[in-house]
Structure to design on (1244 residues):
């Protein structure tokens, strides 16, 4: 990690926001980028790496639209600083399909009509992939509870539960 | 070939949405993009006394800060700011126009920077001093200032007298608080400025509405402005009117001659439109036999100080129930807030909630079964206009819904059903909405390789428009659905109304049918021109397009393949653009109907409410795609659960501010709040409403749901809560 | 949001050194609370010292028979750790009642203790708030205070501590291990969080230059008779209106030891020795539970919107003690309250 620039804090004035160069592993590729200390992982993905599949629905941990997998675990990328994830293994919605074949959960979302506008969908799917990997949810009630960190304003919840059950059965 | 219409086809845009490829308004990362960040007013009313942007301008990466003092010129007439759905009366809000503060959260400055982080940092350094003026934001406190607007429905008979002399009466006030749409996507616009031309990616339910609006606000010619919205992360009405961020993005782009994106924060979205808080007063009088003698519905709803927004809250009873005497009144209270706006089933979500709770209370007063009472009062005609419906299978909805739910096992006595620690309640309600059609143009381009592109300037806001259009076009053109590509969300495409009010499906699909008929005619002409054509002498309605062929309807052996017809005519493409016919028929009422049955379980001690089952039986004409249709109604039910139990924008009236301007404390249902939802589509053939018999489904799903839940809570607990949302402290008197 | 610098701490000593040189710096662990507040302009640290990579990630048995939990252990790992699931299920359930799985995957054990209040006014920089800006006034007392406190309040502040995990830690009588320039010390959980008094800006007795290194659980885990019940405005992903942690040690149906703590009602997890003492030697019946509830809620005061919390808490306490006594703790995923 290298630092460049300085921040002058005369009152509330920042003359030169400091940029830090970091390396992340995103969807199996190492990527280098220059970010401000306060650049969240979400903004790094969306604005710096043009991986706009990861969505911003609140920027405050309140909706789950920004869910990505970091070292295999689902997290809210809006409340994580990119600089803190130096070296971490990050999987976004863009990294789930393999050679053009959809991940079983992506397919299940289509089959079960588990979305409408599609804006919460990336987060739901990444969250669902994380949930399946955790292995803690088996019943519909357990899925409902452990998927409650992903709000769907279109109200696709029952179909989301059905899609996760479908993917769990097939994996 | 099987018909696509009516089949449970998976969404054609599904792959784009599950892979993250679908791009939304704030996701076009064009080279040289400038990021805008809004600074909003912290007070509800007054003037900007001083605004100091010097510190913000010093932040590295900041290019400029626009305020009312240095913005590019803007028109000074209201007319320039009136969009298609602006309220008739009033002066539309003009972003960054002058020093006047009309509501909390109003934009007062736009920081433009090379990156979003710099813009955000700089935004918190803009210092604004205000000259405050006294404000009002409380509907209840300002109620006495309510003024009546033209009632949408005319009175009949003498409702007050009939009420006074009715054998059984019920009168009460119901309250629905302010609610916010909170689509998951943040409002955003990306304005790209190129050689005097503007391309704008906007989060909108109406690209052409925004296009016209921008032309008018920025004095540009129609061909200089293009507005795109290929995908929209939920609208629910919030995206009907152009929102202020699109003006700011264009202002920035014009000022800098560079592409500019403005994305609002979730908190800033609380200063866009909202479902107006409303007080709904219902008075129902009935004979002892259970027929309505008198129906009165008065609404007092919120609007801004500068525009009069109102929707029909009160007229729905006229569509559902017979009553010889009726009176309706709609009043507004002007508050120092942004203008209220359409939100899923505007007017009906609130008005029918009150009406259907009142009917439940009347049934209790009559000692009648709630379904029975509704059947007894059933109206075969629109009561206000005295005209029949194009179709109305509401009776079937009641019957099929009740059967599916098991309503006959209901013990009518409140608090009579329980499971251990929980009281069980069953409630029901009716729903009603309009089945409108709007003039819409669809273009079809059929190419010789058997592919067709179907295009109109609609937006698919999650309703499934892409998919149903592909289905209808595939059927009408006799092509496999994979050969159809649908283009939407671009203002340069053929004219299409706003995506709202549930009219898109019927309008667009009937327009496809007309356009496809034109294509068929063109193909037939080519086929007839062929040597020894088997279709010689046939007219356009004598043939159909089936399996890539032009086929005689009378004799299927007489057919010509589309490919050979086009080849022989040397046509590599056929392009057609037609409009749907919107019948100017005032002799029928056009409506969709529903019956909702809900089960709640309420913890007897703690008042915690769970909605364990909902059956929504809907009569909405022809169902184009049961899969996406089911999702539409299911989503509406989830909204109904939120409306009943969770949603409320909380104000601190001392400050005139929303205190839960986020989605952690503005509660919407989460997965754990939603259980079994069963959607039934009642068969409802309708040849009058429009040629394809389509009625639309976007709104009906929510209508009546909150009432069914409220009625179920009463049935469970014996406690009538009329103020939404029904939180546990309203169900149980704890202290 | 105002800019800040970012540095990483190499070890605990380095962390303390770094914070000592920059009093307006803050540690960042999971970031789920601090980044949230920075974005809302509520917190404005000059620098974030990243402690998330410190090797404080183990959950280990202690020689005293308890368990030592590293401050960086993510909430999820803690809740699913066999030692916790098996011996301290009350803690596991409290953790899993809070936030969402994504947030729990990020949130650290130490950070959870130090999360700030969710009082609406604390979050809204356009309104007065003594906690955010000492001396500016408390907007909540006469304002929108549905989520505010009913116990231990002051004229200056009626905020609650929003944590679920801490309610269980209070009931289990955990100890907080901290290290500062003067070395390491421990703080009993009951002494960790403060009441608002005249200094609502201070949530805890941790010094600004100290770091939490671990939480220690005593041997007793009450794994037979416990329950955590959380009442909120929707069925998941919402903060508690009232939550109750109850733990009992029984001899037949006689109470030998009792622990009772409330969340969502005060500036700290709320316990009272009198309430727990009142249960000793009693039969596990509603009368005894009601008495304990009355003791625990002694002096409770509503502020309008939150008046209902007093009665709600009373009933919730009785209910949770019943669940604990029956050995039937509240399920996380089955929302029926049995
Ligand atoms: C939408 C939402 C919903 C939530 N719902 C719930 C809920 O229902 N129940 C619940 O309990 N919680 C809930 N939370 C809060 C969440 O549990 C806390 O944010 C989290 O536990 C904080 O841990 P962290 O590691 O992320 O802290 P950080 O944000 O990293 O830090 C918080 C504070 O602690 C300091 N700090 C962190 N670690 C240390 C240390 N080791 N030593 C000294 N100082 C330290 C930091 O400087 C900072 O001031 C919710 C959060 C969100 C965003
Ligand atoms: S209760 Fe405390 S946190 Fe809330 S406004 Fe008052 S002082 Fe601020
Ligand atoms: S954007 Fe991260 S949780 Fe909403
Ligand atoms: S699909 Fe629209 S928010 Fe979930």
């Amino acid at each position: 990690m290298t630092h460049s620039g300085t921040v002058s804090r005369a009152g509330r004035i920042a003359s030169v926001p400091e940029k830090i160069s970091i390396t992340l592993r995103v969807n199996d590729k190492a990527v280098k980028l220059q970010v401000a200390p306060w650049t969240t992982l979400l903004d790094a993905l969306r604005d710096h790496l043009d991986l706009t599949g990861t969505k911003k629905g609140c920027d405050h941990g309140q909706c789950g639209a920004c869910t990505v997998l970091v070292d295999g675990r689902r997290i809210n990328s809006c409340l994580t600083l990119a600089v803190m994830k130096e070296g971490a293994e990050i999987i976004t919605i863009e990294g789930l399909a393999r050679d053009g074949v959809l991940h079983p959960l992506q397919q299940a979302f289509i089959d079960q009509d588990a979305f409408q506008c599609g804006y919460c969908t990336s987060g739901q799917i990444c969250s669902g992939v994380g949930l399946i990997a955790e292995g803690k949810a088996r019943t519909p009630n357990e899925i409902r509870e452990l998927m409650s960190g992903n709000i769907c304003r279109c109200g696709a919840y029952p179909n989301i539960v059905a899609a996760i059950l479908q993917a769990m059965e097939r994996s | 070939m099987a018909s696509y219409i009516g089949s449970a086809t998976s969404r054609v845009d599904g792959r784009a949405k599950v892979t993250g490829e679908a791009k939304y308004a704030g996701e076009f990362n064009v080279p040289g993009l400038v990021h805008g960040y809004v600074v909003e007013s912290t007070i509800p009313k007054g003037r900007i006394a001083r605004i100091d942007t010097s510190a913000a301008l010093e932040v590295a990466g900041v290019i400029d800060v626009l305020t009312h003092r240095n913005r590019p010129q803007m028109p000074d007439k209201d007319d320039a700011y009136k969009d298609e759905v602006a309220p008739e009366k009033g002066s539309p809000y003009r972003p960054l126009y002058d020093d006047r503060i009309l509501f909390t959260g109003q934009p007062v400055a736009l920081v433009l920077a090379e990156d979003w982080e710099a813009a955000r940092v700089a935004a918190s350094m803009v210092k604004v001093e205000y000259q405050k003026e006294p404000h009002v934001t409380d509907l209840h406190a300002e109620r006495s200032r309510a003024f009546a607007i033209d009632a949408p429905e005319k009175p009949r008979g003498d409702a007050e007298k009939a009420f006074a002399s009715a054998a059984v009466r019920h009168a009460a006030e119901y309250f629905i608080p302010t609610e916010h749409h909170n689509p998951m996507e943040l409002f955003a616009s990306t304005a790209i400025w190129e050689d005097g031309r503007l391309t704008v990616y906007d989060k909108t339910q109406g690209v052409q509405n925004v296009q016209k609006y921008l032309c008018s606000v920025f004095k540009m010619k129609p061909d200089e402005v293009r507005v795109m919205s290929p995908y929209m992360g939920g609208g629910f009405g919030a995206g009907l009117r152009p929102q202020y961020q699109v003006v700011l993005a264009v202002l920035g782009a014009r000022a800098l001659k560079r592409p500019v994106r403005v994305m609002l924060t979730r908190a800033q979205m609380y200063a866009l439109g909202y479902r107006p808080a409303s007080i709904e007063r219902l008075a129902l009088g009935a004979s002892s036999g259970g027929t309505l003698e008198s129906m009165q519905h008065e609404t007092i709803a919120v609007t801004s100080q500068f525009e009069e927004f109102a929707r029909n809250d009160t007229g729905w009873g006229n569509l559902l129930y017979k009553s010889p005497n009726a009176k309706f009144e709609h009043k507004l209270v002007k508050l120092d807030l942004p203008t209220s706006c359409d939100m899923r089933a505007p007017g009906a979500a609130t008005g029918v909630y009150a009406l259907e709770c009142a009917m439940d209370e009347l049934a209790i007063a009559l000692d009648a079964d709630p379904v029975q009472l509704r059947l007894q009062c059933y109206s075969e005609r629109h009561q206000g206009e005295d005209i029949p419906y194009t179709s109305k299978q509401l009776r079937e909805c009641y019957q099929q819904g009740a059967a599916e739910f098991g309503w006959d096992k209901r013990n009518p006595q409140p608090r009579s059903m329980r499971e251990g620690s929980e009281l069980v309640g069953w409630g029901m309600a009716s729903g009603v909405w309009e089945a409108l059609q709007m003039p819409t143009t669809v273009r079809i381009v059929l190419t010789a390789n058997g592919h067709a592109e179907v295009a109109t300037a609609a937006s698919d806001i999650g309703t499934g428009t892409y998919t149903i259009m592909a289905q209808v076009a595939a059927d009408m053109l006799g092509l496999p659905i994979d050969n159809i590509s649908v283009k939407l969300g671009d203002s340069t495409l053929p004219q299409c109304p706003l995506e709202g009010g549930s009219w898109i499906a019927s309008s667009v699909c009937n327009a496809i049918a007309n356009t496809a008929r034109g294509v068929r005619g063109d193909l037939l002409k080519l086929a007839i021109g062929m040597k020894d054509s088997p279709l010689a002498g046939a007219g356009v309605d004598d043939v159909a397009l089936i399996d890539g062929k032009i086929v005689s309807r009378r004799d299927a052996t007489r057919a010509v393949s589309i490919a050979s017809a086009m080849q022989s005519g040397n046509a590599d493409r056929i392009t057609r653009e037609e409009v749907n016919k919107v019948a100017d028929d005032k002799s029928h009422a056009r409506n969709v109907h529903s019956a909702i049955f809900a089960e709640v379980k309420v913890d007897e001690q703690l008042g915690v409410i769970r909605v364990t089952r909902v059956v929504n039986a809907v009569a909405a004409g022809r169902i184009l795609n049961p899969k996406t249709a089911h999702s539409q109604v299911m989503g509406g039910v989830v909204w109904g659960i939120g409306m009943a139990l969770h949603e409320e924008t909380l104000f601190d009236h001392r400050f005139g501010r929303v205190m839960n301007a986020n989605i952690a404390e503005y509660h919407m249902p989460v997965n754990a709040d939603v259980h079994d939802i069963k959607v039934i589509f009642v068969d409802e053939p309708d040849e009058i409403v429009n040629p394809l018999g389509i009625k639309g489904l976007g709104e009906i799903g929510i209508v009546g749901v909150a009432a069914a839940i409220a009625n179920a809570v009463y049935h469970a607990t014996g406690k009538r809560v009329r103020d939404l949302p029904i939180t546990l402290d309203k169900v149980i008197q704890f202290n | 949001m105002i800019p800040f610098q970012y540095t990483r701490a190499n070890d605990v000593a380095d962390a303390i050194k770094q914070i000592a040189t920059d009093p307006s710096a803050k540690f960042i662990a999971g970031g789920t609370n601090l980044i949230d507040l920075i974005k809302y302009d509520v917190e404005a640290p000059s620098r974030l010292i990243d402690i998330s990579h410190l090797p404080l990630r183990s959950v280990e048995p202690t020689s005293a028979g308890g368990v030592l939990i590293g401050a960086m252990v993510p909430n999820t790992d803690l809740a699913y750790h066999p030692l916790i699931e098996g011996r301290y299920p009350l803690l596991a359930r409290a953790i899993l009642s809070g936030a969402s799985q994504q947030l729990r995957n990020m949130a650290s054990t130490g950070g959870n203790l130090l999360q700030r209040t969710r009082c609406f006014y604390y979050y809204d920089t356009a309104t007065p708030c003594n906690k955010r800006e000492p001396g500016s006034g408390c907007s909540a007392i006469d304002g929108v205070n549905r989520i505010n406190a009913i116990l231990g309040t002051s004229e200056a502040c009626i905020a609650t501590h929003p944590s679920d995990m801490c309610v269980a830690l209070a009931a289990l009588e955990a100890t907080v291990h901290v290290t500062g320039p003067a070395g390491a010390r421990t703080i009993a959980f009951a002494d960790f969080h403060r009441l608002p008094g005249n200094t609502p800006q201070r949530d805890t007795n941790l010094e600004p230059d100290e770091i939490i290194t671990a939480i220690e659980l005593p041997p007793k885990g009450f794994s037979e008779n416990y329950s955590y019940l959380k009442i909120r405005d929707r069925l998941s992903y919402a903060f508690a209106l009232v939550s109750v942690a109850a733990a009992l040690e029984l001899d037949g149906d006689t109470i030998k030891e009792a622990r009772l703590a409330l969340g969502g009602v005060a500036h700290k997890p709320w316990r009272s020795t009198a309430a727990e003492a009142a249960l000793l030697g009693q039969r596990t019946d509603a009368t005894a539970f009601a008495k304990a509830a009355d003791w625990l809620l002694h002096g409770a005061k509503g502020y309008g919107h939150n008046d209902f919390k007093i009665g709600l808490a009373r009933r919730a306490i009785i209910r949770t003690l019943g669940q604990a006594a029956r050995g039937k703790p509240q399920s996380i995923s089955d929302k029926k309250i049995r």
